[in-house]
Design brief:
alpha+beta; about 30% strand; 7 strands; 3 helices; SH3 type barrels; globular; three-stranded antiparallel sheet
Length: about 150
């Protein structure tokens, strides 16, 4: 592809808004009447759900982060959260690339996402060591940096 993929750049920027909101919530809790509706593709690679939830929601699911959630953790790739489903507490993981929408009704704020295409693992080339490292095989002893 020639040029810039501005659409994907915008999508990544929007995902970072969700990431930051979840990081703040993980540290400080939800302020005031804020709460989130988060919709995501349940069949996206990396989504972790119990099988019975995946059976009920084979393509997409919306979770509510408001009163009954525990153990919220967000990192650069996604978030873990424990929620109550039919009287049972379950821990799930959602990669940010699986997001379809994020809404905070109290703030009258919402985002829509276009999940990126799923890349088959055999289409992704394995990382290669730079040839200069393989050829030279440079090993530097830590003794070189120690004061004598």
């Amino acid at each position: 592809m020639d040029g810039f993929n501005y659409e994907e750049m915008v999508q990544e920027g929007l995902r970072s808004v969700v990431r930051e909101a979840l990081e703040i919530t993980a540290l400080e809790g939800l302020p005031g009447a804020h709460h989130f509706y988060i919709a995501f593709k349940t069949d996206y690679p990396g989504v972790q759900l119990p099988e019975y939830l995946r059976d009920r929601h084979p393509e997409e699911m919306t979770i509510v982060v408001q009163h009954q959630y525990w153990g919220l953790e967000a990192d650069e790739n996604g978030f873990f959260i424990s929620l109550s489903f039919s009287e049972s507490q379950e821990r799930i993981y959602v990669p940010f690339h699986a997001l379809l929408s994020f809404m905070d009704p109290y703030a009258k704020f919402g985002l829509q996402f276009i999940p990126p295409p799923i890349i088959e693992m055999d289409e992704v080339p394995a990382p290669q060591l730079p040839s200069s490292l393989e050829e030279k095989g440079n090993i530097i002893s830590l003794d070189t940096f120690r004061k004598k």
